[in-house]
Specification:
Length: 209
């Protein structure tokens, strides 16, 4: 997964994000021409491919995916939920673009879905953990069954992320969707930017002696 994620970031950094920026810069204000449509669709598909990759990893090692693998940057960790960005980060990022009242209403609907879904997924994970602990104390937990439930939790979490992105892009449509995808790409890449990580390290407390 480390190699996959590094390659995924590299492709997002170049050529996908520069192509999207160039299409935004050369499009008529608010227009949705073919170059912009193609560039935005490619970025959205790239994020969907990332979550499909996480699905594949979860089927092999769900515990590592849920716990955030070692391919994550230290700055990225606070933004993760069950292996990747929290779905509400997507709606929060969308709101920074000063959307119209119509789009804000659409984002509110997506947020309500997130608020209903996230606790349900978290409760499913909690129940799996409690069952494992109880069985282990009683004499031996079914590790295979526990990992199977972890896999299901990871897949549900990724499906929620995929659906939220698709709903936001569809609600925004056209030029606004492209702006959102450009902002999302910049945010994700900033979590791995050497200069940002250097500033992050400078703010961390030194190890206790």
């Amino acid at each position: 997964m480390r190699d996959f994620f590094a390659a995924w970031l590299g492709t997002l950094r170049s050529p996908l994000l520069p192509l999207l920026r160039r299409a935004l810069a050369t499009s008529s204000s608010g227009s949705w021409d073919d170059p912009l449509s193609s560039a935005a669709s490619a970025v959205e598909a790239h994020f969907q491919a990332h979550w499909s990759g996480l699905d594949a990893a979860a089927r092999q090692d769900p515990a590592q995916v849920i716990a955030a693998g070692d391919w994550r940057s230290p700055l990225e960790l606070p933004f993760l939920w069950l292996g990747d960005v929290h779905p509400s980060l997507l709606t929060s990022l969308f709101r920074t673009l000063s959307p119209s009242p119509r789009l804000l209403a659409a984002v509110d609907r997506v947020d309500r879905r997130i608020r209903a879904s996230v606790p349900a997924v978290a409760d499913r994970l909690r129940r799996a953990q409690e069952a494992f602990v109880s069985a282990e104390v009683a004499g031996g937990a079914d590790v295979e069954a526990f990992l199977e439930e972890l896999k299901s939790v990871a897949l549900v979490a990724n499906r929620l992320r995929r659906d939220v992105l698709s709903e936001l892009v569809a609600a925004a449509g056209g030029y606004q969707a492209a702006l959102f995808l450009e902002a999302l790409s910049r945010f994700v890449l900033s979590m791995h930017d050497p200069e940002v990580l250097r500033r992050f390290d400078q703010c961390r407390a030194p190890p206790a002696t």
